[in-house]
Amino acid sequence: MRSISLTKTEKSWIMYDIGNSAFILMLSTIIPIYFNSLAGEDLSSVDYLAYWGYAASIATVACAVLGPILGTYSDRKGMKIKMFVGVLGVGIIGCAALGFVNAWVSFLAVLIVTRLAYSLSLIFYDSMIVDVTKAERADNISSAGYAWGYIGSCIPFVVCLVLILWCDSFGLTMGEATTISMIIIAAWWLMASIPLIRVYKQSHYISKEESEGALRVLAKTIGNARSERKAFLFLIAFFFFIDGVYTIIEMATAYGEAIGLDSTMLLIALLITQIVAFPCTIAFGRFSSRFDASHLICACIIAYIGITLYAVFLDNITEFFILACLVGMFQGGIQALSRSYFAKIIPPDRSGEFFGLMDIFGKGASFMGTMMVSFVSQATGHMSLGIMSIVVLFVVGLVLFIKAASIPSNEERDPVTDAS
Predict the structure, then answer these.
(1) What is the per-residue pLDDT across 191-242, written as a single tens digit (0 to 9) for each?
(2) Among 209, 287, 312, 349, which has the highest number of CB atoms less than 10 A from its own CB?
(3) Does 399 fall in a domain?
(4) Residue 332, in any domain of the structure
């Protein structure tokens, strides 16, 4: 469990997690509260939760469609960094623009575009892991990315939190404080991206001819995945269990708002999630050198089943604080280990293609989870029943993942080369 020294390329790759995590932290905390203030009297608490879920679903469906196609094109020589920079620019501009939109419908429209760009950037970013580190270091590097992303994102978040909570002391309105905050997050995201843009070199790639034709690309990608039995079954399992994880991330603050918990305390609780996640994610990376990564992923899924059941019955801020700590313990571990586990069982020269497909099964699955929570909540009038439906996703995902992990490991290959 000793610490490892990082190469310059590995450090630059980790830096991007620190940058984009600031946006996702705002998205899961302050942004839904700001959206609630924009919606005002127009939406009931149930409708507020539902429309928030619908917006998330639209963005994830769009990413699921575009992800594997763009991911395959990014596997061409020199294309990955260009496509990464393109969607990164859209995401950063959209992040800053959120602070200038005052109508809730328009706000959701800008948010959808920004979320889409953010998610697409992660496809290219995640697939870069095969170029920035060695196979035996992948679990640790992936975990370090999530861990430092959690703790690093707290720096701009705390600044924004102070601005928003004490906006009167600074002579600002809530809207003005939010505008400044979104600009701060956009700037942080940009600055943390520059090191990776400067040093990244794509060492695994395919020819232009192999990536021609968007519809053929999608069909071929699915065909390639099906020929990789272990990877394909993992993706199906991933579809279910990561859906539950993403849905909890997406809906946590909105759920707390909807059941009437204090907004300020919600933000503090979710800040604690980030702080707890830092050492726990690092720990999972270190544990992977002593325990099989598949066993650790199973442990995380089982923990999330318990976390979801606990969330159904919470009704006060103290219980929400406990929930925030529990999520922080396992959130980074399951995400980081899933990313590195997948990287080790796919062809390295098609990493963009396979990570694009992973986005269909991952972010695309989030469409199902948020829609499920939204639909069940509206249909029954009980938000707790909507949250309870998430348990099904974890149970199915666990069963399928155990099956995928049982497939002989001779399909695994060394996907990554040394990084300078």
Answers:
(1) 999 999 999 888 766 666 555 554 455 566 566 556 567 878 888 898 889 8
(2) 287
(3) yes
(4) yes
Q: Note whether residue 208 is domain-resident.
A: no
Q: What is the DSSP letter of 409?
A: G
Contacts from 320-325 at CB under 8 Å and sequence distance 24+?
320/256, 320/261, 320/265, 320/266, 320/269, 321/265, 321/269, 321/272, 323/252, 323/269, 324/252, 324/269, 324/270, 324/272, 324/273, 324/276, 325/272, 325/273, 325/276
pLDDT tens for 93-117 read 999 999 898 888 899 999 999 999 9
DSSP string, 11-42: HHHHHHHHHHHHHHHHHHTHHHHHHHHHHGGG
Q: Give the CATH number, domain containing residue 283.
A: 1.20.1250.20
How many alpha carbons lie under 13 Å from residue 149 in its C-beta half-sphere? 28
φ, ψ of residue 260 to 5 degrees: the values are: 90, 20
- Domain-embedded: residue 373: yes
CA angle 240/67/36 to nearest 5° reads: 70
